[in-house]
Write the structure tokens for this entry.
Amino acid sequence: MPTIGMISIFDILHNIQEVIFKPRDSAGRTKLRGVNLMIDEVALEERAVHFRHTNSVGGLCWRHSPLVDLVLRTYESALALVKKIQSGHVHFAKEMTVVAASLFGESGTYPILALPTCKVDMTADDSSTIYQVVLEAWERSGAVQKVGQVWSWSTDGDMMRRVAGYRAFLAQKLQPTSPIYGTLASMAGLNLYTGHNEVTLDFDFKHIFKRICTLLRSPAGIVLNNGRVINPTMLARYLIQLPNQNTESVHALLFPHDSQHVPCAVELLLSVIMVGKRDYGSMDADTCADVDSLRLLASVIKSILEPFTNTTMSLTDQITSLATFSHLSFTLFRCSRLQYMSNQLYGDSQTMVKNALFCLAKQQALDPTQPFYLFQVGDDPLECLFGKLRMLGGHNSAMNYAQAIDRLGHACDLQGAFPTVAAFWFEP
Ligand SMILES: [Zn+2]
């Protein structure tokens, strides 16, 4: 169901019923799961569309369209709308904000809200509104009893959503009466603050990897506790010494054409880990200091990257590694503050680790016999859904709001026909 005008709880209730309940019922899926809600945006063609079922105009921004009447009653109502658009009171949506649910231990991505967004004067309060309305709809729909509790809210690190996320999901301390308190309260340094119903905030791990790479690729670089600046100039000197690297490949790692390219980011991080592993023989004092800081950086990177890329690790190894990252990162941030990482990246990466710990503890409390896959944290399933939307348009990313809604519906139907990697994983 498209959202026409202001965000509406009834649209979300309808979508939960149609997109989650019905397909899960017909597939005979009755097991209660932990729910990860994800939020992200996809680009829209800026144009108005007509929705016949309500005889109204869609594709205008949700934030400002309450200022106008979107129903096409007469010819005059169309002219009035045009005037409002021309005067800038209401805008064509540039993007569609999608909220989707994915379930821990089960395949499938379920979009439950698709909001046309203009990005004009958007504030953290608007993001808070989205978080609140969706969580309220989840409770009112009966999804808690039918599907499961919401465990986490994942986002990519958008500024407004971050502000709203830290506000909403660090509001109250985990109570000693909670079934997960015993496990989590004994973990040294773990932040026990959550949102209502113990929902935790999550930042997508792939985005965090990219942001660490952005830091490494900046002239200011990363400074660890011995004062060495690890930036492209310094890294180039050591990356070139690795087997299989040459001037061109090192340049491609440090100055990629597309800094959003995740495989390239992971390759840079893996190369830094290899730099840390090398035996440098006898060194002068200067090289010694460089190598010291590179080895420390390599352990920090390895501890956050490996749990998501090394498929031979056990869940215990993965969690131990993430905890290692948290402690190392905490110490380095205490020593070097912003020279080590920005506040945002430091907070977001710690939040990501904390969320993984909370989700695992919740799975243990809900049903310890069910599998828990670390890669199910984050908002990647939503990014995959956006990939399908583009694919359905013949890889033409331009789509208007009506087409986007249509493709979301098809993408949901396709989930059964083309099992995702996760589906092969869970249901061999
Ligand atoms: Zn607007």
